[in-house]
Amino acid sequence: MDAARKLLREQPTAKVSIYAPEQFDSLPALKENLEEAMEEGIEIRGGLIPVSFEGDGRVQKVRFVDVKVETDPVAGQRRFVRGKEAMDVEADVVVICAGQVPRTDFLPSQILDERGLVRCDRYGRTRMARLFAGGDIVGFKATVADAIASGKRAAMAIDMDSHSGEPPDIPLLGNSLLPSFSHYLGIDRKETGKVLAFEALNTIPVPFSAAFRPEKERPGQRRKDFREVSKGFREKEAMEEAGRCLSCGLCKGCDLCFLVCPDVAIVRKDLKVFSVKDDYCKACGVCARVCPCGVLEMVDRE
Question: What is the pTM of this model?
Answer without folding.
Answer: 0.62
